[in-house]
Amino acid sequence: MAYLQLVQCKIMYNKVGLHHVSPNNMNDFDVLGDKRPVNNPATFFREHGRDFFVCCADFQKEVLVLVRAREGIQIKEFTFFREAIRQYAEELLVIPFAQLDSVAAEVADDVSHITTVFLYHTARCGSTLLTRALEATGLMHGVSEPDIHMSILQYRQSQPGLQEEGLKMLTDVMGYSNTLFNFTLFQQDPTRTAVCYKTRAEVRWLVNTSLEIDVHQISYYYLRFPNIYTKIYRNSEDVKTVRP
After folding, report:
1. What span, in angstroms and rounded, lies between the C-alpha atoms of 228 and 239?
2. What whole-number distance in Å separates Cα of residue 4 and Cα of residue 244?
3. 140: phi > 0 → left, psi -120 to 50 → alpha, else beta; which?
């Protein structure tokens, strides 16, 4: 069952160190109080989705984790989404994979017009500046390094022999999380009709693997979500658009 959980960021993340580069996961937070069940997560997300950003996925527990930040914190104003959503988290919305279909279906029509761009890059290439520039246009949401894509990458790398059923599950989680993320952004600013998600540099492995090995996986994804585009960004003169 889906549930809400009050949390706070673990104190270790208030100190400087390499632990800040570790991907977001449920263990980043100290729990405050008891879980509160959400009997109808689709309706709840329809009513409160503007406040909950997709944070990460736990493939062992088979849940998607969304975060509500502390009041007054504008997460998108920070350079790296993954760090801000962890540091300023106040409440988790945890949705089992089995319920994601109904939650995404509830809001899918609201965001069907939105174009999604995944920006993969090689690091130290100006991709963060590009994302901020896209945000500054007022036409597009620019989100720098949300860690849902790292969750997907880590699971994919841990399952090199993933069969068709597993690939479908992975692709479903990718698609549903994208729909929910877009809905949150659209609710906050409905005038923007496109979203650019700049992934971490490591995540380019996922698209390279998908294009070179798992053609079925990425083709299935694009067929389901026709407004998805992938950008491979190396520098200002080397940008490649990928669709099968």
Report:
1. 16
2. 39
3. beta
Structure tokens at 121: 């890059």
Amino acid making up residue 115: T
Query: How many other C-beta atoms can be found within 10 angstroms of the C-beta atom of residue 114?
Result: 20
Compute φ and ψ for 154, nearest 5 degrees: -60, -40
Rounded CA-CA distance 135/142 in Å is: 5
- The first and second tokens of residue 139, run together, are 């036409």
Q: Which amino acid is at 186?
A: F
**CA dihedral of residues 240, 148, 226, 201 (deg, nearest 10):** 0
Reported pTM: 0.86
- For 52, residues 6+ apart whose C-beta sits below 8 A from its C-beta are 45, 66, 67, 68, 93, 184
Nearest to 35 by CA among 98, 91, 89: 91
φ, ψ for residue 103 (rounded to 5)? -65, -45
Per-residue pLDDT of 71-118, as tens digits, reads 999 998 898 999 999 999 999 999 999 999 999 999 999 999 999 888
* Reduced 3-state DSSP string for the chain: CEEEEEEEECHHHHCCCHHHHCCCCHHHEEEEEEEEEECCHHHHHHHHHHHCEEEEEECCCCEEEEEEECCCCCHHHCCCHHHHHHHCEEEEEEEEHHHHHHHHHHHHHHHCCCEEEEEEECCCCCHHHHHHHHHHCCCEEEEECCCHHHHHHHHHHHCCCCCHHHHHHHHHHHHHHHHHHHHHHHHHCCCCCEEEEECCHHHHHHHHHHHHCCHHHHHHHHHHCCCEEEEEEEECCEEEEECC
| Beta strand pairing call for 140-144 and 115-121 | unpaired
